[in-house]
């Protein structure tokens, strides 16, 4: 993370993503957009739930610091919708913005995501330039423009 | 069954009225009465006449006897006053006197006068020689005068009585004649009248009998006809009364249910049902008779019937009702639909198989979306990263290859997206409603053109309202207007038109452009998946857009087709309603 882009609030972005390529590309996009935020990645639903429940302690990261969750729906073990449910049931993360990242445009998935309290649903484009742009827009909006509950 | 009432009707129509029938009998009776009257009257007249004749004879006899008496009296008187006196004179007078009295009946005066005269004569006769005639003749003369006078009075009386009797007799004879002539005439007239009526009655009766015969024959023919119809009916036909008892059936029914005719007679319709359907059927039967409209039985249910051997077969049963002299009857036509139902079941099985295959395909499409797009993103993303991070180390050739890799990955991404869109069009629910095509077309065009629209002449007719699914209609317009924009991108004065028109009597919406167009020979192929009219380097595309359009209108029951010419533009027509050609498109 560079020191450029002072307008960006510092904060922790929680990325729930099982695909290493997508993780790398997301990191690259965030870097290109000059976000100062830290990124914490969990690679499956079960890990995400463990982390949320506090069963797995991580000295570096605290749920209190999370200012945005980027959540892939299709996850191994426990799917993204369950993770979303867990986030909304979590005392600390109850009001944290959650953006669902999906590869499909399955309406059922979108409907359920919004029902469970997703703040936004975004489809990951194949074109990396558009993907990078999307990630940038998301960060700008949710980390800079959006006023979260403290 | 239908001709049952005809015979009775015919009799009533062609036969005599009761009044007409009675007239003949009245004639007969009147003639008999008149005849009897004439007979009685004639008998009485003849009797009267005969009585009168008898009385006349008696009178004549009396008058004769009186003449004899007078002669005897005169003779006796002469014998006294004359020379000789027959000794038997008084006795003769007395005898004649008795005769007269016998004939005349009680006539005391005459009897006395005769007696006096006889006694006077007797007194004269033994002393005739001794006594002077003059002295004795005085008594005789006196008695004679009285007697003569008496006789004269009686004769006068009897003579007038005789005349009266004769006149009465003539009157009676006249009356008899008149009575007989008039009575006979009247009697004959009445007999004639009666004969006329009886004859007429006979003729009418004959006519009515013939009419009745004809009607019966007609009814019989009608019955035979309906019988034949019943028996040659292609379906097993059973007629039952309100109690469910089978009163009529055809051969087919016996064959279908496997019964003998005499067995069938003893059955009720319930006996032909599977055991499971029997309870409750009686109430259903009552329900039918309450509202006996012709209808298929057990709508929406798979009905079964049971043969004599207890085996069941799927049946289709149509019901109707008829009103007869024996009350209301129900006619049931039973058709063994084993084959049809088996076919329907087979169809259902195939449909289930195809549905399962479709669901599998959907699941496949879904995973394609997710699982194929991710690696493509990696291909594109890391190619880009290579260019960005190591661009300086790469040769111009390597740069070009990486650009091609990225283009291919993106194109594949679009293909996947379009295929998914097509599959979604097929799967999503269709909710029809009024869709403002004019408004929607403007909106879609605006969003497709983005923030920097090209200068395009756009004509969108106002007030185009379709009855269609709004979401699918948007996808359809996105594809058609997207195409129109794409194919007009290289013409100097691009024009896009949206409107309504008519083709071969059917109404269509259309989207027209003056772009690249296409060869009319390929018009039909355009709507197939992956079918393209242009090379990728001319106009990029996946060849799925029009297939999606086609699928959308198909789902609405409508039709889509295209007209075009190379270099002059293309028009795509579409409808959401079933048109004359929808079925064969």
List the helices and strands and how they pair.
The complex is a heterodimer of chains A (150) and B (585).
Chain A: E1 12-16, H1 20-32, E2 38-42, H2 45-53, E3 66-72, H3 80-89, E4 98-102, H4 107-115, E5 120-123, H5 128-145
Helix pairs in contact in A: 1-5, 2-3
Chain B: H1 6-14, H2 18-81, H3 89-104, H4 108-124, H5 133-232, E1 236-241, E2 246-249, H6 251-257, H7 261-265, H8 281-290, E3 295-296, E4 303-306, E5 312-324, E6 327-336, H9 338-390, H10 396-427, E7 433-436, H11 437-449, E8 457-460, E9 465-468, H12 470-487, E10 495-503, E11 506-513, H13 545-556, E12 559-565, E13 569-575
Helix pairs in contact in B: 1-5, 2-3, 2-5, 3-4, 4-5, 9-10, 10-13, 11-12, 12-13
Can you describe what's shown?
The complex is a heterodimer of chains A (150) and B (585). With 150 residues, chain A is an alpha/beta fold. Chain A has helices spanning 20-32, 45-53, 80-89, 107-115, 128-145, and strands at residues 12-16, 38-42, 66-72, 98-102, 120-123. Chain A has five helices and five strands. The radius of gyration of chain A is 14 Å and the shape is globular. The two termini of chain A are 24 Å apart. Mean pLDDT of chain A is 82; it is low at 1-8. By secondary structure, chain B is an alpha+beta fold. Chain B has 13 helices and 13 strands. In chain B, strands 1, 2, 3, 4, 5 and 6 form a six-stranded antiparallel sheet that branches. Chain B has a five-stranded mixed sheet with strand order 8-10-11-13-12, covered by helices on one side. In chain B, strand 10 and strand 11 form a beta hairpin. In chain B, helix 10 (396-427) runs parallel beside helix 13 (545-556). Residues 1-16 of chain B have low confidence and may be disordered. The A-B interface holds A 19, 21-22, 24-25, 28, 74, 102-107, 124-129, 131 and B 366, 369-371, 373-378, 380-385, 406, 409-410, 412-413, 417, 420, 424, 428.
Key attributes of the depicted protein:
heterodimer, A: 150 residues, alpha/beta, 5-stranded parallel beta sheet, 5 helices, disordered N terminus, B: alpha+beta, 5-stranded mixed beta sheet, 61% helix, rod-shaped
């Amino acid at each position: 993370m560079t020191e450029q882009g002072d307008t960006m609030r510092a904060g922790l972005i929680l990325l729930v993503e099982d695909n290493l390529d997508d993780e790398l590309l997301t990191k690259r996009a965030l870097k290109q957009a000059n976000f100062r935020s830290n990124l914490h990645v969990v690679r499956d639903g079960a890990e995400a739930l463990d982390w949320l429940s506090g069963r797995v302690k991580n000295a570096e990261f605290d749920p209190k610091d999370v200012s945005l969750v980027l959540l892939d729906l299709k996850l191994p073990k426990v799917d993204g919708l369950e993770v979303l449910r867990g986030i909304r049931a979590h005392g600390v993360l109850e009001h944290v913005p959650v953006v669902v990242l999906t590869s499909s445009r399955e309406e059922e998935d979108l409907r359920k995501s919004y029902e469970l309290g997703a703040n936004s649903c975004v489809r990951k484009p194949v074109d990396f330039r558009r993907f990078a742009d999307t990630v940038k827009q998301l960060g700008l909006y949710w980390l800079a423009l959006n006023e979260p509950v403290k | 069954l239908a001709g049952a009432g005809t015979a009775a009707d015919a009799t009533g129509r062609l036969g005599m009225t009761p009044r007409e029938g009675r007239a003949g009998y009245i004639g007969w009776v009147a003639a008999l009465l008149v005849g009897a009257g004439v007979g009685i009257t004639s008998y009485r007249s003849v009797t009267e006449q005969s009585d009168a004749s008898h009385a006349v004879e008696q009178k004549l006899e009396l008058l004769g006897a009186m003449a004899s008496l007078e002669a005897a009296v005169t003779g006796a008187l002469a014998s006294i006053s004359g020379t000789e006196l027959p000794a038997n004179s008084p006795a003769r007078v007395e005898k004649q006197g008795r005769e007269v009295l016998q004939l005349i009946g009680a006539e005391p005066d005459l009897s006395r006068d005769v007696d006096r005269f006889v006694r006077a004569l007797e007194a004269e006769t033994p002393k005739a020689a001794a006594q002077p005639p003059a002295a004795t003749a005085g008594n005789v003369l006196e008695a004679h005068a009285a007697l003569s006078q008496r006789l004269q009075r009686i004769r006068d009386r009897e003579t007038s009585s005789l005349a009266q009797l004769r006149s009465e007799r003539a009157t009676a004879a006249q009356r008899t004649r008149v009575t007989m002539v008039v009575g006979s005439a009247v009697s004959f007239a009445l007999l004639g009248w009666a004969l006329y009526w009886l004859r007429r009655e006979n003729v009418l009766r004959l006519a009515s009998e013939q009419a009745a015969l004809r009607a019966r024959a007609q009814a019989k023919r009608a019955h035979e006809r309906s019988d034949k119809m019943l028996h040659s009916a292609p379906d097993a036909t059973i007629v039952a009364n309100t109690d469910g008892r089978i009163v009529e059936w055809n051969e087919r029914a016996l064959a279908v249910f496997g019964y003998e005719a005499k067995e069938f007679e003893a059955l009720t319709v319930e006996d032909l049902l599977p055991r499971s359907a029997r309870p409750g059927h009686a109430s259903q039967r009552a329900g039918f008779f309450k509202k006996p409209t012709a209808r298929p039985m057990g709508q929406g249910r798979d009905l079964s019937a049971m043969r004599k051997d207890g085996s069941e077969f799927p049946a289709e049963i149509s019901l109707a009702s008829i009103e007869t002299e024996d009350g209301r009857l129900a006619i049931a036509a039973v058709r063994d639909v084993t084959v049809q139902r088996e076919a329907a079941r087979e169809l259902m099985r195939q449909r289930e198989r195809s549905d399962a295959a479709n669901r599998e395909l959907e699941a496949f499409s879904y995973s394609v979306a997710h699982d194929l797009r991710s690696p493509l993103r990696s291909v594109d993303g890391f190619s880009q990263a290579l260019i960005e991070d190591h661009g300086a180390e790469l040769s111009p050739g390597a740069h070009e290859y990486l650009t091609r890799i990225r283009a291919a990955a993106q194109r594949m991404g679009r293909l996947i997206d379009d295929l998914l869109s097509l599959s979604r069009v097929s799967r999503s629910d269709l909710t029809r409603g009024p869709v403002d095509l004019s408004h929607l077309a403007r909106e879609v065009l605006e969003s497709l053109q983005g923030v920097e629209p090209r200068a395009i002449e756009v004509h969108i007719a106002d007030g185009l309202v379709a009855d269609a699914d709004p979401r699918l209609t948007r996808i359809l317009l996105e594809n058609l207007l997207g195409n129109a924009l794409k194919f007009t991108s290289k013409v100097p004065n691009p024009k896009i038109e949206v409107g309504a028109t008519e083709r071969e009597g059917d109404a269509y919406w259309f989207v027209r452009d003056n772009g690249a167009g296409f060869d009319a020979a390929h018009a039909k192929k355009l709507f197939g998946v992956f079918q393209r009219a242009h090379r990728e380097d001319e106009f990029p595309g996946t060849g799925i857009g029009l297939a999606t359009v086609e699928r959308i209108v198909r789902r609405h029951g409508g039709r889509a087709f295209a007209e075009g010419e190379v270099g002059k533009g293309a028009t795509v027509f579409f409808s959401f309603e079933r048109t004359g050609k929808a079925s064969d498109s």
